[in-house]
Write a structure and sequence with these properties.
This protein is mostly helical. It has helices at 2-13, 24-33, 41-58, 73-86, 94-100.
Length: 105
C-alpha cells in the first residue's frame, strides 16, 4: 500500500488521473483475504483515505466532500500517509483523522 500510494501521488501530479487507484482493488482484496494478520488503525485510515481519493479523482474533483482538502492536496497527503506507514508512526494529521478515521459506536 505504501508504494501504491506514492505511485498514485506521482500519477496525479503527472496528470495521469485515469491510472490513480489502479492498484486499490488488489490491496483491498489482499487485506480482506488476510484478516488474521495484525491489523492496524493506521492501515484502515490509509485505505479509507485512498478509497476517497480515488472517488474524488473519478469524479473530476467536482464535488469535494472533504473540507480543507483541495485537488492538489491529495498527493501530498498520500505521501505523508505512506511515510508514516513506512516509519511505523501513527497517522497524526488532524485533517486526515477528521475525514478518514472510522469512529466506532
Amino acid at each position: 500500500m505504501i508504494e501504491a500510494l506514492r505511485r498514485d501521488a506521482f500519477r496525479q501530479e503527472e496528470g495521469r488521473l485515469v491510472e490513480v487507484g489502479k492498484e486499490f482493488d488488489a490491496v483491498e482484496e489482499y487485506r480482506s483475504n488476510n484478516r488474521d494478520e495484525p491489523g492496524s488503525v493506521d492501515l484502515a485510515i490509509a485505505l479509507t483515505f485512498w478509497d476517497a481519493w480515488v472517488d474524488q479523482v473519478h469524479h473530476g474533483f467536482q464535488q469535494n466532500f472533504y473540507q480543507g482538502i483541495g485537488e492538489s492536496d491529495w498527493s501530498a497527503l498520500a505521501r505523508e500517509i505512506a511515510g508514516q506507514l513506512e516509519g511505523r508512526e501513527p497517522i497524526s494529521n488532524v485533517l486526515i483523522l477528521k475525514h478518514f478515521r472510522r469512529h466506532s459506536g
